Amino acid sequence: MAPRIFSFSFVLNLASLDSVLVLVDHFLWFSHFSSNYYRFSEAVAFFGLCVWLVPFIYFVSLSASDNTLPTDLGGDQKAKKSKIGNHLLTFMNFVLRKKADILPQKNAKSF
């Protein structure tokens, strides 16, 4: 029996739809920034953060846990997890105490 070959037409249709939507989105934002006056740095910052970076991070976060299996933490594993949390809390408290010892404190002036 020959291996089953999946149809690429559905994936290509979704990719082309996404590409069209991205082009429409960019066109709308470009038309907005061209009809209203904004400094170039403001427009570039908006595009960099809101139009490109936020959607990219969103889609990366959607696929971040694709390779993990769902697990049920039993009683013993919950205890191990809480120990790790306690160790982390202890370490952070240690770092904060050392920071207070090393860095100078700003003293309030007394009159």
Written overview of the protein:
This protein has 111 residues and is mostly helical. It folds into 2 domains: 10-63; 74-103. The chain contains 3 helices and no strands. The chain has helices at 9-35, 40-62, 75-102. The longest helix has 28 residues, at 75-102. The termini are far apart.
Q: What's the order of the H and E elements?
A: HHH
Overall domain count: 2
Provide the gyration radius in Å: 26 Å
What's the shape? flat
**Structural class by sheet pairing and helices:** mainly alpha
Roughly how much helix do the residues carry, as a percent range?
over 70%
Helical stretch tally: 3
Low-confidence stretches: none
Biggest sheet, in brief? none
- How many angstroms does the end-to-end distance come to? 92 Å
Strand tally:
0
Q: How large is the share of residues in beta strands? A: under 5%
Estimate the mean pLDDT confidence.
74
List key phrases describing it.
111 residues; mainly alpha; 3 helices; flat
